[in-house]
Amino acid sequence: MKKIILIGLAIVLIVVLARLVFYSGMLREVSNEFLGQELASWEAPAGPEDLDLDYKRNHLLISSADRRNAGSSSDGIYMVDLSMDGQVIKKIKDDYPGQLYPHGIFVQELDSTTYVWVVNHQETQDYIEKFTYNGKVLTHLASYTDPLIQGANDVCALKEDLFYVTRDHGFAKGWKQKIEDYLILPIAKIIVYNEGRFYKVADGLQYPNGINVSLDQKQLYVAETTGRNVRVYNILDDYSLTQTRKISMKTGVDNIDIDEKGRLWIGCHPKLLAFVAHSRDPANLSPSEIIMIDPNQEYSIKEIFLNEGEGFSGCSSALYYNKTIYAGVVFDPVIWRGIIDI
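Above: the chain's sequence. Below: its structure in token form.
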């Protein structure tokens, strides 16, 4: 009986390691490829993890947090006016009563008002912050929190007081969360805030990360980082979700941006264990990838950019506007840029 138990444990261990090797991209070969022309990168505040665009003003908004030095004074929301020549990255003034430690952001244009939604990680709990933006300052309107969004990663709003949140882990923190990561357990969730309360609308996900909505607001897109999928949901009349498609990827998908043609632009981590090593030491390079998915072409997948990580490690977001790609990273003080007509 003891021998049978040991054999069983060995088989389980082999299966777990095989899954980790596959899902982490450990065996994938990465080269340097780009379908366009690379531009000079911008020096940025540390950790420009997520990007979005205020189309009305041609302002690129940047969510930055120094994740290797938590609580840095550089943390906040930044702006670049893309209609002006030259690179000028400015921190946007805000009246938030405390220091922002931002993660995912979402820019919403509604009834001529520009709203900026921010995932905000505070020491004791996570919040979703709601601001208005007039091109110069962020005016704080509301803070939302609930036990259901502890572990919030990204946010996507449909109405003035209706938004979806990815909770990237089932466990809030600690060793259980590490086990969840390395066993790639499907226990994370999508949460909605509607009619004054938070509630779950989808579960069984493997590290849901970026979230965004189609231009007609009929589909919700969610990136699963460790699961290496992009899930497509129909948004029903009551704002519940029905999954219609699960797009298998060969990379760890992160944030999702939607361009003016409705295409998905995703910053990706081809080798997730290399990204973990990079998080501990910037000298450890983490390969970067940018993928475009086109719902207008049966969700066709096109690899736009792939790099071993030299000068551009840990790509987390990619935004396409006026034939230019702007890409952010999780840790380093850089925004990568490239030109492509696609």
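DSSP finds three helices and 27 strands in the chain.
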